[in-house]
Fold this sequence. Notes:
Elements: E1 15-26, E2 29-35, E3 38-40, E4 44-48, H1 55-62, E5 70-75, E6 78-80, H2 84-87, E7 91-94, H3 106-115, H4 125-135, H5 151-162, E8 169-173, H6 181-196, E9 200-205, H7 208-214, E10 217-222, E11 225-231, H8 232-238, E12 242-246, H9 250-259, E13 263-269, E14 272-276, H10 284-293, E15 300-304, H11 308-316
Parallel strand pairs: 4-9, 4-10, 7-8, 8-9
Antiparallel strand pairs: 1-2, 1-3, 1-5, 5-6, 10-11, 12-14, 12-15, 13-14
Amino acid sequence: MTDGSPAGDLATSDLAIETHGLTKRFRSQVAVDGIDLAVPRGAVYGFLGPNGSGKTTTIRMLLGLVAASAGGARVLGADMPRHVDSVLPRVGALVEGPAFSPYLSGVANLRRFDAADRHAPRRTRSARVDEALDRVGLSHAGSKKVHAYSLGMKQRLGIANALLMRRELLVLDEPTNGLDPQGTREVRALIRSFADDGTTVFVSSHLLAEVEQVCSHVGVMSAGRLVAQGTLEEFRDAGEARALVRTPDAEAARRVLTRLGMAVDGDLGGGAVAARFGASDVAPEAIVAALVADGVRVRGFEVERASLEQRFVELTGEGFDVVQ
Length: 324
């Protein structure tokens, strides 16, 4: 896991999205402050942060919808926004919620958007619209006018619009907003299926559960800055670990753990003693051996790591919505 700098081991050709010092200022306010994204091709990259942390502004710069104040961005190997005309046909996007004509049906809206895409073949339009609606579970509602759709249905229609053509990169800004639990599960399954097809997915979210369940990589935004990025496993491993010992000999266990250079949190009750590893690199099996050698009766032993929620709070100083 890095502190927000580009992934040093990844060549540019391995990155679907790459930024260097990307910055956006609105008058006196800095919305995005010099961020260095590195999104590997084929990854599901969770762009995580509290509301107002700069996620949507970053996405708009990546797609060429707003100009950066400083820095640069490359999307699918091309500089943006200089090559926007050649890049955007390879990108499907849902940004700040879908905008549809309310008095047209879902099918008519999708056909209208598809007709506006000069790269979309007219001959296969109907089949592609039907397939996209089926993939997001809206086949039954395709003939209904969009004003009768729930917010969740509109969100899924927006994803269907992003799927009308085969894309190398999908950029989804808060894709589960307004969805009920079943709809949320369906969107998560969709995102996994996109990745299985080899599509890179860039998912912006403030929901920890969403990122944790579908993403392979994570970037964390706080107050306009990218404070960390890396694989999900790196985030899981980065939190401070602690050993949890269950024993009727709590006082003796504390003495042993202190001698090993660990920071003892104290007796947790019920015969459980916790100690943080800190700078100590003692192996778990060595801890157990030392406890037994000192006559400590070990009834249970485990190594706990900080939860993702704790890590994100440490990085941002703010809480996240963790239940959906």
